[in-house]
Design goal:
ABC_BtuC-like, single chain, transmembrane, 660 residues, ABC_transptr_permease_BtuC, ABC transporter involved in vitamin B12 uptake, BtuC, 27 helices, two-stranded antiparallel sheet, transport, 2 domains, 2% strand, mainly alpha, two-stranded antiparallel ribbon
Length: 660
């Protein structure tokens, strides 16, 4: 009971704070005696009534309703998919909505006459439909829905980023929208969201009893007569519809749907129905109070509410997790691959594939006269090119190994390097230098990125008690820390001025800053990381079976997890320092190796390193040449290579096995 008092007290205080700020600001703008008149029918002769009745009050209502919708959607999604990191915006809904709006803005502006909702909802529906299509052959297994939505969402995000890079002059307003802007000019948005939230709440109440059975295994739930696939699809679709409605109305607002259900659980809402209600209440308070603080703070009017919510809410969640005991580690998630043993010869056969990709990247180039061999391009061009190829190869291997360790360690296919917050920390370090010392060059930017990654790792170690917490606790802490640092990076990006586009390219995974020295450092780090993964294969295998099994095998779970956690952070930090945050490589490279039949052992680590290296090297080569003379970031191009391959393999493989 004592553990519940702190989050409940904080929620109440936050609600009171937001309400007090709203009342004070509203009274200063318009006397309270005139509020009802302004809400009923604002006087056209009184500008203050029009502002209060058509802007101030509707914005507060939208913040409350949108926050409640996101909180409810996050709770439904996490319950349906049995994953503490599942949330509609993470699983491609917001990315699909954003992509739909981008394409409508550029190629079908007539659709925007009816507002942004139609193209945004169409994009979100496409993302949801694709995730369910991928999972259809597995009876909507949680891991299939999760991976399908996550991979397709990353694909949409990369495509949107590429379009923005090429059309940034025409899409400047979209950058504000995608960060969540709550400005209102009437009650139409609030009424529309309220009606949809009411319908969703009614449907959720009808599903609550069936959803509560999903706490059991799928086999047990089916034995009790529950149509597991149908219930999971309905709950996920309902959560996605809520998130899509909010995204279409006010833009992308992340973190609320992720954090609200966990804060509700910390408040003691263990049963599903109270957790759904509490999640909606937490989401409403979090978004409303953040928006009020933002409006009341001088000089922060330019900051979008979505970014500010992450910036202010993530530290609160981290602090709560630091003070309160975490729930036990989650059960191992279901995998969906067919496994077989691979001989040394078969593993070695993967090396020619990597060598072929590297040789193409080195010697086949494109210039003003078309495609040609590097021998015709001059020695200077080769001297500039080989560090990029080596750096891409090493960074891809490092990012893949980091994801391999994390996915095995936490038994979660959504785990990837950015979950640690290391990539975001490196981004913040680099952007800080760009704002404070824009003329800095040489080793200063890479050292700043490394320093930011080290600080992020230290913060995560503090929150997770040196890695001694449960896997779900560490994953959630990493997600909250990453969200917080992403909010800081967004603010710094706005302050970076003319360097914003260059930083955006680096954040998308650019190899343009790689030197011969940094490439050799990355190669050495990749060899060390791969060697350590091979040496630790027994520890990884035992931990992938759970702490109880690991202890029975003579392995101290907490200390070993902390060491392996440091290995993953080291690999992710060096990779980010070299070529920027490459979240897709860390997610997809171990997944492709796993879908190809490799286990969580030394062979799996080797295969993951080869896949990551080949994927990023090929992406860098394509990015440098396909749109010559305009280079494309390798991190974005890798999504176009890896996402279709991963989705195709998800469709082909269908035998469910344990994730290990």
């Amino acid at each position: 009971m004592r553990g519940r008092r702190l989050p409940i007290a904080l929620l109440v205080l936050s609600a009171i704070l937001g309400l007090v700020i709203f009342l004070a600001r509203s009274d200063a703008a318009l006397p309270a005696a005139l509020w009802l008149d302004a809400l009923r029918e604002p006087s056209p002769d009184d500008f203050r009534q029009a502002v209060f009745g058509l802007a101030v009050a509707p914005r507060a209502a939208v913040a409350l309703i949108a926050g409640a919708a996101l909180g409810l959607g996050g709770a439904l999604c996490q319950q349906a998919l049995r994953n503490p990191l599942a949330e509609p915006s993470v699983l491609g809904v917001s990315a699909g909505a954003q992509l739909g709006l981008v394409f409508a803005t550029l190629y079908a502006p007539g659709l925007l006459v009816f507002g942004a909702e139609i193209p945004a909802l169409a994009g979100a529906a496409l993302a949801v439909g694709f995730a369910l299509l991928v999972a259809a052959r597995r009876r909507a297994a949680p891991v299939a829905v999760t991976l399908g939505g996550l991979i397709f969402g990353l694909y949409c995000t990369s495509l949107t980023a590429l379009v923005i890079i090429f059309h940034r002059d025409h899409l400047s307003d979209l950058l504000l929208w995608q960060s969540g802007a709550l400005d209102q000019t009437g009650w139409s948005v609030a009424a529309r969201l309220a009606a949809r939230l009411a319908c969703a709440a009614a449907l959720a109440s009808l599903l609550a009893r069936s959803l509560s059975l999903l706490d059991l295994s799928d086999e047990t739930a089916r034995g009790a007569g529950l149509p597991v696939a149908a219930v999971r699809i309905m709950a996920f679709t309902l959560a996605a519809a809520l998130a899509a409605s909010v995204t279409a109305a006010v833009g992308v607002i992340g973190f609320v749907g992720l954090a609200a259900p966990h804060v509700a659980a910390l408040m003691g809402a263990r049963r599903l129905t109270p957790r759904l209600i509490s999640s909606a209440a937490v989401g409403a308070v979090l978004l409303f109070t953040t928006d009020q603080i933002l409006q009341a703070t001088p000089g922060l009017g330019f900051v979008p509410t979505g970014a500010a919510t992450t910036f202010l809410g993530a530290p609160l969640l981290l602090w709560l997790m630091r003070r309160l005991k975490s729930s036990g580690g989650g059960a191992a998630m279901a995998d969906d691959v067919t496994r077989r043993r691979w001989s040394t010869g078969q593993l070695a056969s993967a090396l020619p594939m990597l060598a072929f990709v590297a040789l193409c990247a080195l010697f086949i180039v494109r210039s003003e006269s078309g495609w040609q061999f590097a021998a015709l391009a001059g020695d200077l061009a080769f001297d500039l090119r080989w560090p990029r190829v080596m750096g891409a190869c090493a960074a891809g291997a490092l990012a893949g190994l980091s994801g391999f360790v994390l996915q095995t360690l936490f038994r979660n296919p959504m785990a990837s390097p950015e979950i640690l917050g290391v990539a975001q920390g490196a981004s913040v370090g680099l952007m800080t230098i760009a704002v404070v010392a824009p003329t800095a060059a040489g080793l200063v930017p890479p050292l700043a990125a490394a320093g930011g990654a080290a600080v992020a790792l230290g913060l995560l170690a503090l929150v997770s008690r040196g890695g001694a917490a449960s896997p779900n606790h560490i994953l959630l802490a990493g997600a909250a820390l990453g969200a917080f640092l992403s909010g800081v990076a967004t603010l710094l990006l706005m302050l970076s001025g003319p360097r914003a586009i260059a930083l955006l390219n680096w954040m998308s995974g650019s190899t343009s800053l790689v030197t011969s020295t940094s490439a050799l450092i990355a190669l050495g780090a990749a060899v060390i990381a791969l060697s350590l993964c091979v040496l630790a294969q027994r520890d990884l295998a035992l931990l992938s079976l759970g702490d109880t099994t690991a202890s029975a095998g003579g392995l101290p779970p907490q200390r070993t997890r902390a060491l392996l956690f440091g290995l993953a952070a080291f690999a992710a930090g060096v990779s980010t320092m070299i070529v920027g945050p490459l979240s897709f490589i860390g997610l997809i490279a171990p997944r492709l190796a796993r879908l190809a039949g490799f286990r969580a052992d030394g062979a799996g680590a080797f295969a993951t390193a080869v896949v990551g290296a080949a994927l990023l090297t090929a992406a860098d080569w394509i990015g440098r040449n396909v749109a010559y003379p305009w280079p494309l970031p390798a991190g974005l191009v890798s999504a176009f290579i890896g996402a279709p391959a991963a989705l195709a393999m998800l469709v082909v493989h269908r035998s469910p096995r344990r994730f290990r």
